[in-house]
Amino acid sequence: MAPKMTFLLSSSVPMVTPMPDAPLDPRSISSLEVLLNDLKVGTIVRTPGDFNAFSFEKSYRQTGGFPVLSLSFRAAHGGLRKDPKPVARALPSFFANLLPEDKLREAMEKHHSGSVRAGNDFDLLAALGSDLPGAVRIVPSEGIVARTEGLTPRPKARFSLAGVQMKLSVIKNTGKGGGLTIPLGDEQGSYIAKFPSTSFPGVSENEFANLALAEAIGMDVPERELVEKSEFEGIPEEFETLSDGKVLLVKRFDRGADGERVHIEDFAQVFGIYPSRKYEGAAYHDIAAALGVAVSFSAALEFVRRLALAVLTGNGDMHLKNWSLIYHGKGDKPALAPVYDVLSTVPYIPSDAMALSLAGERPFKAMNAQRWKAFAHRARLPEAAVMKAVTETVERVNQSWWSLPERALVPQKVLERVDAHIKLMTPILAACAD
Length: 434
Ligand SMILES: Nc1ncnc2c1ncn2[C@@H]1O[C@H](COP(=O)(O)OP(=O)(O)O)[C@@H](O)[C@H]1O
Ligand SMILES: [Mg+2]
Hints:
Blueprint: H1 2-9, E1 31-36, E2 39-47, E3 51-56, H2 58-62, E4 87-88, H3 93-96, H4 102-111, H5 121-128, E5 136-140, E6 167-172, E7 180-181, E8 191-194, H6 203-216, E9 224-227, E10 232-233, E11 247-251, E12 263-266, H7 267-270, H8 284-294, H9 297-313, E13 324-327, E14 335-336, H10 369-379, H11 383-401, H12 412-430
Parallel strand pairs: 7-10
Antiparallel strand pairs: 1-2, 1-5, 2-3, 3-4, 6-7, 6-8, 8-11, 9-11, 12-13, 13-14
Magnesium ion binds near residues 163 and 341.
């Protein structure tokens, strides 16, 4: 594995042709190896006509499918399902969900232009396969075959993060000067930098305060800080954003202290749904039910608390890609991943509603006791436990929010809208206690 890896990743490995440093051109690759850390689990083959087929490795099938790549590949009775059907002009959904979306995707395509065709999932996965969410690694099977002639080889950024906001996987440099840099070649970032958008004033501070609130009420939240744009060095221009204001820096929970990969998958992956359907592919009770079966009753209840928090804070963006499972240890059993991407969206989209439906409804104001009861029923969770989780969350939020130090950072207008929403929703949710 190692020589092929370095071929993809590094600009300084001697090769067999006179062009020692040129990267493999993703357009010429027809087969990709899929690894979980160092274990080969399968292969993605691109056929003429641009069909992409994924198949599991025989030896991995024999393990019964451990460590787990995705719950979507597992059969109800245990073991692995049949290989997914080949897909024309796209990757099977699990892999499509590893790729950046929208602006970040465009920036990455530009960064790798000449070797990655716009809109081509396979090309992009081949180019970014060394730094994906979780412990998946994608390596060309062919090794040294085709190469990009005539280009000056320069190490490129090869990280992939899903989501639409402009963001970078970054390295925090300790020691002299400090600063934040983007990983190039085979370097790995252990933080995610989320750049603010001009259309959403105070968005970094808003998310920063929401993360602090989640932590204050006892949720599992990654370390984070707000930093200045001037602390970043050497960012290629295609990743530049027309933003001003602070950048939110969040510690990656899918990277360990020594940079080791910890596997994660989001709920679009769990349900085998393409990123384009992240707002409609499933409902909240599907996530709760899946957590109850695949993780634990307490994970399902923690999900209910996070949902109640989203309703209270006016967060209408908790779609399928904003909830993940994490596989610690040997990677055989999932847990609910820490909280991420929590933000009050009501200050920017006043008529916003829940990202997915909760017992058939989306408007925040519809989230009354009746709705939660219906949700409990559909999620196959005991009604009393769900009502208690909602009630406790309302109490805890009201105990923490009004004196939370991070409030001071949120622009006044934004804060007023969040405060008004919490005041509006508190009695509606508190009625779950009756
Ligand atoms: N702290 C984190 N550790 C590891 N992965 C993360 C973390 N925060 C976000 N991610 C991953 O990065 C993706 C994009 O981050 P997110 O905060 O959701 O950005 P966006 O606002 O653009 O959706 C997420 O879908 C998730 O897979
Ligand atoms: Mg997101």
